[in-house]
Amino acid sequence: MNLMVFGAPGAGKGTQAKFLVEKYNIPQISTGDMLRAAIAQKSAMGMKAKKYMDNGELVPDSTIIGIIKERLEKDDCQNGFILDGFPRTLAQAQALDVLMKESGKELDFVLSFDVPDSLIIERIAGRRVCPKCGASYHIEFNPPKTKGICDACGAELITREDDNADTVKNRLLNYHKQTAPLIDFYKKMGVFAQIDGSQELSKVTKDMFQILG
Fold first, then answer.
1. H helices of 30-129, where?
2. Catalytic residue among 36, 88, 123, 128
3. Which residues on neighbouring strands pair with residue 193, listed in sequence order?
4. Annotation says 88 is catalytic
5. DSSP conformation class of 85
6. Which of 22, 82, 105, 167 has the greatest number of CB atoms lying within 10 Å of its CB?
7. 13 noted as active-site residue
């Protein structure tokens, strides 16, 4: 099954994608995680992308498209995948459509999680991540067992540079301007499904799996 989780930053795409990974045993492809890994490794691409991410701006299409193309060609994507955080622009969506057709694949569902901006800012401001294993927490909605410490590996949790309130507001502006128009693109393809992402986590998950059947 080839899926895409769609929505504004902090809408819950990554959280729901993990449930999809568990159920369908297919990889979650997060451009954000890939870019942050490149930054941590101080690669040329990572350093180039960092200046955009720190300002809450979108990384150029050419960089993102290249990353996705290489990822979809890997063996673990042959039985399906979950795109998380891509595409973010119409040009990216069109490029993805070309890539899919060239490889004989097609999207089964685009799952869109709809959440008000005010709630998104609240969610992201409380987000904490593990710099060692990548686990994600929230000080209110999903706190670690020990305050400030990762449950999985025991490392000290941090707040990502691009999770401050001003940067989040800028990311939301970019989303509404450049990414939201993709809704019409995928509605026309007949694969778009909207979910109320402001509900309790379990209800969002239940609605998602009902759509997938």
1. 31-40, 44-54, 61-72, 90-102, 117-125
2. 88
3. 111
4. yes
5. S
6. 82
7. yes
Report CA dihedral (188, 107, 21, 6) to the nearest 10 degrees.
-30
Q: What is the CATH number of the domain that holds 96?
A: 3.40.50.300
Number of folded domains in the chain?
Answer: 1
- d(Cα 24, Cα 53) in Å, to the nearest integer? 31
Which among 105, 160, 169, 187 is annotated as catalytic? 160
Residue 144: inside a domain: no
Tens-digit pLDDT profile for residues 71-98: 788 888 889 999 998 888 888 899 999 9
Q: Exposed (0-12), middle (13-18) or buried (19+): which is 70, by Cβ within 10 Å? A: exposed
The model's pLDDT over 98-126, given as tens digits with 9 standing for 90+, comes to 988 988 889 999 999 999 999 998 888 88
